Amino acid sequence: MYSLYYLLVRDTNQFYLLPRKLRHVFKFLSIMYVYGIGTWVFSSFKHATWMLGVWHIVHLVLIGFLVLLGLIDWFFVPLSFAWKHLGGSAHEFLISPALYIIAGIAYNYFLLQPEKKQSGNSKG
């Protein structure tokens, strides 16, 4: 999704010609798409239900922050460059594969390693 978003939406000349509010909608939809995929994937982890909870917490906190920034930008005052950059970084983090990689490392460390240690200890 990250690559598709940048290749087909963000890195096109037309993206910056779109009204600011429409760009916000595109960004929000990309986050919701990734959130939905992650929720679907992590809900299939029967032994790691905590990962789904962490997924929800990270996304809902950052989505709430981005929605708050968007509402301020739409209805009150245009955001400064620093706030826009912070919002852009949060958006990029949410759609990047970083959370999947972190989840894969955590899954391997917390779930697969103890199984390997138990199977290694039972052989004797």
Structural overview:
- This protein is mainly α and 124 residues long.
- The relative contact order is 0.11.
- It has helices at residues 2-10, 20-43, 49-75, 81-95, 98-122.
- The radius of gyration is 19 Å and the shape is elongated.
- The mean pLDDT is 84.
- It has one domain.
- The longest helix has 27 residues, at 49-75.
Radius of gyration: 19 Å
Share in β-strands: under 5%
Q: What is the count of DSSP helices, taking H or I runs of 4+ residues?
A: 5
Structural class: mainly alpha
- Tell me the span between the first and last alpha carbons: 47 Å
Please tag this protein with its features.
mainly alpha
How would you summarize the topology of this molecule?
Elements: H1 2-10, H2 20-43, H3 49-75, H4 81-95, H5 98-122
Helix pairs in contact: 2-3, 3-4
Outline of this structure?
It contains five helices and no strands.
